[in-house]
Structure to design on (738 residues):
């Protein structure tokens, strides 16, 4: 009977048993039973009991070798969010302790906060997670395990949700796994995400891999046999492994570096694991004696580890049959870190107090938190976040020989601020390899960089904010301006607002301007208008976000009272009718409480002239005023009295819709990753894809897509953005039929 009670967690208990470590099994069982009770009656979209999701997450957590509290938090991670009427953090603390409660809170999304759009809500949840992560690194371990299982079961979601989750995974969680050195989780996340973001590209690359591997199926085994015989002859304790490059890794090289599949030289890899660093270099020499090395393809990550603590020797050689392959040589400790990253020896694993070595490796999290504290604008924070975690590294040396790691594309200014805030603020010039270089130059791997400073420097330039690439440098520059130039910032901020007001259709009185600006300031949760101007001036607030809100408030103050004329005589017949309530973002005359639906034949958008047609039993159908079906219907005398005046309501109404569906058709030249590029472009514009389908026609592909947009202006800007993508031949709006 007792075994049946814990039947669902038997695989987990077996994983724990194999670790050989001490766990509080009673506490783990208690957490499982509690989570099972909380989620009782809840089902996942697949139809299985919801408790199986926490159970699977707990198994992944245990597989990383994490502790009792981490496993308990894995069971409980959705209880506070999904069962608010049954439990809360106070109860979790009482039953399982403050550590478990902190972990659960860290992975719980923010729901009860007044945020204007779902994009900002998502970013605020990521900010919250980072803050919790800085307090306890186990938060991100559990979140990554949660995301891995969600990706494994993502197929049950609708297309739009699958793409949105896959995009977030590729932009946030896979890079975080990379920065933490957790390669196994990273690769799994990337593989699943790519399948949903560019299924055609994924299948194409996988087909190439399967074909090449099929042609040389015994290649790695033959190489392993040769190397094994050599290593045995010198009495080295070793283990060998081989791998074929992942689909995403090949896809990324082909896409980012514009390489053909045949130019991927590290498709095959041999991994040699030994006991000591000295043996690593000894084996490297023997490998170069056995096989011909490829010039420029040797990397020593032992003497210069990656920021995520990865260490290994990499060299590319040519086998006897002419096939190139990569050889990776590392110690057993290095291999554990390569597979599991910080989770392989994090400070909680042995119950030790803070390890300075690990804390130093997690310093980048503190820098992200510094950016989080300064960034008022959520989009700006997200940009800095992606730059700092999702990049290829460049290794640059100081004149003293210290290695500084920068994101690829970072400038000498970024380098200066990485050294020290004071160095960046006093920077007046720089040298690369002994030669004077412009401060916006991008150093390359192996360059020796010297920063020239002066005590009489007036500080950084505002232009630097447009030059630097790292969030750390941008944050430090803003902090300087925020502290040293408040009066100047306020003037700059006021000037920026003046420019936005000059773009509006009609002049405002001083009183109207005050109302508009005051309302905008409140929307950014600020109490003082000078703080608002200051934030604009030093760059803590993006003018693009402010401009949108100014326009919204302007339209509230200057709501156009004039009725736009529809070019049909029936409009005059309904002008005397009383205007009624708004329904779904549309105000109709003479009808109250009717259901309003948008005609599929023309898919009208805010900003376009519209007209209502009273249907028989299906409410009022809203059409574009120039819709062919409207003109055709009005030509029949019996329909004349069924038309009513309609106009768009303003966003201030509670019934106003924030997004409207519209269909487009994109004709593109067949090219791998073009669908991913279009999806990325739409994501950057915060445009949801409702549905998508493709059809190949000779050397072209027709992509049919339904997207969500705010109004006709937004729709036109979307079309313009897509037309600017390489190999897009034509983009057209699709009108349905009656």
């Amino acid at each position: 009977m007792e075994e049946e009670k814990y039947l669902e967690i038997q695989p987990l208990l077996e994983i724990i048993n194999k670790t050989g470590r001490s766990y509080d099994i009673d506490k783990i069982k208690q957490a499982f039973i509690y989570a099972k009770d909380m989620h009782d009656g809840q089902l996942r979209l697949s139809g299985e009991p919801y408790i199986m999701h926490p159970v699977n997450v707990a198994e992944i957590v245990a597989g990383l070798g994490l502790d009792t509290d981490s496993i308990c938090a894995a069971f409980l991670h959705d209880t506070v969010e999904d069962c608010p009427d049954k439990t809360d953090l106070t109860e979790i603390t009482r039953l399982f302790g403050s550590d478990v409660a902190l972990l659960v809170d860290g992975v719980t999304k923010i729901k009860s906060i007044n945020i204007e759009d779902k994009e900002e809500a998502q970013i605020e949840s990521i900010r919250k997670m980072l803050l919790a992560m800085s307090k306890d690194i186990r938060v991100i371990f559990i979140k990554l395990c949660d995301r891995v299982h969600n990706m494994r079961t993502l197929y049950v979601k609708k297309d739009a949700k699958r793409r949105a989750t896959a995009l977030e995974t590729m932009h946030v969680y896979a890079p975080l796994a990379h920065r933490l050195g957790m390669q196994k989780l990273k690769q799994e996340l990337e593989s699943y995400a790519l399948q949903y973001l560019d299924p055609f590209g994924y299948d194409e690359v996988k087909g190439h891999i399967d074909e090449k591997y099929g042609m040389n199926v015994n290649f790695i085994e033959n190489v392993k046999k040769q190397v094994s015989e050599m290593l045995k002859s010198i009495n080295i304790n070793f283990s060998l492994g081989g791998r074929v490059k992942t689909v995403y890794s090949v896809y990324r090289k082909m896409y980012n570096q514009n390489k053909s599949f045949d130019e991927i030289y590290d498709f095959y890899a041999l991994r040699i694991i030994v006991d000591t660093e000295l043996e690593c270099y000894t084996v490297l020499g023997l490998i170069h004696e056995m096989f011909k090395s490829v010039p420029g393809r040797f990397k020593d990550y032992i003497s210069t580890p990656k920021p995520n603590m990865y260490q290994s020797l990499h060299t590319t050689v040519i086998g006897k049959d002419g096939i190139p392959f990569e050889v990776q040589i590392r110690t057993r400790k290095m291999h554990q870190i390569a597979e599991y990253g910080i989770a392989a020896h994090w400070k909680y694993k042995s119950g030790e107090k803070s390890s300075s070595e690990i804390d130093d490796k997690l310093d980048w999290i503190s820098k992200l938190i510094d950016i989080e504290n300064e960034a008022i604008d959520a989009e700006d924070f997200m940009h800095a976040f992606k730059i700092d975690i999702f990049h290829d590294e460049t290794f640059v040396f100081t004149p003293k020989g210290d290695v500084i790691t920068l994101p690829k594309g970072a400038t000498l200014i970024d380098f200066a601020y990485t050294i020290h805030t004071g160095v960046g603020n006093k920077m007046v010039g720089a040298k690369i390899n002994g030669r004077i270089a412009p401060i916006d130059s991008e150093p390359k791997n192996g360059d020796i960089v010297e920063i020239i400073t002066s005590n009489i420097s007036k500080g950084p330039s505002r232009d630097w904010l447009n030059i630097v690439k790292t969030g750390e440098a941008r944050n430090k520059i803003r902090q300087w301006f925020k502290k040293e130039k408040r009066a100047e910032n306020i003037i700059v901020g006021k000037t920026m607002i003046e420019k936005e007001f000059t773009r509006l259709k009609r002049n405002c009185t001083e009183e109207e301007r005050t109302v508009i600006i005051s309302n905008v300031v409140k929307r950014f949760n600020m109490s003082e208008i000078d703080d608002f101007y200051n934030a604009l001036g030093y760059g803590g607030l993006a003018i693009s976000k402010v401009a949108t809100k100014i326009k919204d408030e302007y339209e509230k103050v200057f709501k156009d009272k004039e009725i736009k004329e529809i070019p049909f005589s029936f409009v005059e017949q309904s002008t005397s009718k009383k205007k009624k309530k708004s329904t779904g973002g549309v105000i109709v005359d003479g009808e109250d409480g009717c259901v309003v639906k948008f005609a599929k034949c023309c898919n009208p958008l805010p900003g376009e002239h519209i007209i209502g047609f009273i249907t028989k039993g299906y409410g009022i159908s809203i059409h574009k005023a120039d819709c062919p079906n409207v003109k055709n219907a009005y030509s029949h005398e019996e329909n004349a009295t069924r038309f009513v005046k309609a106009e768009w309501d303003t966003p201030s109404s509670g019934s106003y819709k924030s997004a409207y569906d519209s269909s487009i058709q994109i004709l593109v030249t067949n090219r791998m990753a073009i669908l991913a590029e279009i999806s990325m472009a739409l994501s950057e514009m915060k445009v949801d894809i409702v549905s998508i389908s493709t059809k190949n026609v000779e050397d072209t592909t027709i992509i049919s897509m339904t997207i969500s947009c705010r109004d006709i202006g937004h729709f036109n800007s979307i079309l313009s953005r897509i037309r600017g993508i390489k190999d897009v031949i034509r983009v057209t709006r699709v009108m349905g039929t009656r």
In short: The first strand starts at residue 239 and ends at 244.
